[in-house]
Amino acid sequence: MHYYPVCLDIKNRPCLVVGGGGVGTRKVLTLLRCSAQVTVVSPEVTTELAQLAQQGQIRIKLRDYRTTDLDSAFLVIGATDDQEQNRRVYQDAEASQRLCNIADQPELCNFVLPAVISQGDLMIAISTSGRSPAFAKYLRQRLQREFGPEYSQFLNLMGAIRSRLLVAEHAPEAHKPLFENLIHNNLLELIKADDRSGINALLKKVLGPGYLYEELMENH
User: Fold this and answer.
1) What is the CATH number of domain 1-113?
2) In a 3-state reduction of DSSP, which class is residue 127?
3) What DSSP designation does 98 have?
4) Distance from C-alpha of 5 to C-alpha of 66, rounded to nearest angstrom
5) What is the rounded CA–CA span in Å between residue 86 and residue 74?
């Protein structure tokens, strides 16, 4: 199986989670971090899900799954311990051409969820195409130690510089060599060392006067 790698924008999109146990709870929390509108269908739910519903963050239907639950769903996740019900959710999703993932059953998915490393806007996804989720988790834990918070700060700074350059009406095609210069002159390492004077000296060298780390990062 060769999967097509993609990052989905699910902000404010209706997403359905079938199953209210521990696995379903983890899936819901991931969807909420991406600002989805989440509905959970399950006869029973965890205390955490009940609290999220009380806070108005999710909607819960305390009953068994029905095919009509898919009517407005953009994406559906099956997370029950009932194999027959999981298969029904997948078949219904396929029939209505909806995105569907059944936890720990790659054969009942039209997309799989990778192991993810995230530092601010940096996201690194690791997939074994469903062959070994355990190995994907191992790689994530190994790589997590290599990608620290400096990567988030680095991307915030690069985004602030890009915004400043666009305001200054620099031609977008002229930005690439500037950013490459910053990268190849060890900007990331300077940020990791919190060397403010070194960062500002590099910014001035590459971009000219008026680019100060403290000012650029003020709103980040």
Assistant:
1) 3.40.50.720
2) coil
3) -
4) 30
5) 17
